[in-house]
Design brief:
Elements: H1 2-18, H2 44-57, H3 61-72, E1 83-88, E2 98-103, H4 109-130, E3 142-147, E4 150-157
Helix pairs in contact: 3-4
C-alpha cells in the first residue's frame, strides 16, 4: 500500500510537471506587457501613442474569427463526404482551443485553411504575450456528420481507420 501511494504521488508530480507551459521546450520568455509603464497623467500623448502602437502591432483576433466563421457560413453540404473538421484557435498548453465543422461545397478550402492557420498562429502569440495558461487537456478531434443539409460536429471522437 505504501509503495502504491508513493508510485501514485510520483505519477502525479510527473504529469503536473509535464503540463508546465513552455518548460519542456527550453527557457520561457516573459510576455510583452500590454501597456508600457507610461504614466498617462504626466505624459498623455506618449501613453496614447504607445497604446495605438500596441493595438496596431497585434492582429484583431475577433475580426479574424468573424471572417473565418462568415466564410464557413452554414456549412451546407449535399453529402457527408463534403464535411470536414479542423482545429480552431490555440490552447496555451498546445493544441486547438476548439474544433469547427465546415463544408467543401462552394468553398475554397485552401484559402480557408490558410486563414485558420494564420488565426491559430495569432492566437498562440496572444496566449504567449498575455501569459495565459490552460488545463492542458488533450481534446480528441470530433467526428462530423450531415444533419439537415449542414455539417455538424458530433460529440464523439473521430474513429481512426486501420
Amino acid at each position: 500500500m505504501r509503495k502504491l501511494n508513493w508510485l501514485m504521488a510520483m505519477v502525479a508530480v510527473t504529469l503536473l510537471g509535464a503540463c508546465q507551459q513552455g518548460q519542456a521546450g527550453g527557457e520561457r520568455l516573459a510576455p510583452e506587457p500590454l501597456i508600457e509603464p507610461i504614466d498617462p497623467v504626466t505624459n498623455p500623448r506618449a501613453a496614447v501613442k504607445e497604446r495605438e502602437r500596441q493595438m496596431r502591432d497585434h492582429p484583431d483576433l475577433q475580426k479574424m474569427r468573424a471572417d473565418i466563421l462568415s466564410m464557413i457560413g452554414q456549412a451546407e453540404a449535399d453529402d457527408v463526404q463534403q464535411c470536414r473538421v479542423i482545429g480552431f484557435g490555440h490552447k496555451p498548453c498546445g493544441g486547438p482551443a476548439e474544433y469547427i465543422a465546415y463544408s467543401t461545397k462552394g468553398l475554397n478550402e485552401t484559402v480557408l485553411q490558410q486563414k485558420i492557420a494564420s488565426y491559430n498562429k495569432a492566437a498562440e502569440a496572444e496566449n504567449i504575450r498575455l501569459g495565459r495558461m490552460s488545463d492542458c487537456a488533450i481534446v480528441p478531434e470530433p467526428a462530423v456528420s450531415l444533419v439537415g443539409g449542414q455539417c455538424k460536429i458530433t460529440g464523439t471522437p473521430k474513429q481512426e481507420v486501420m
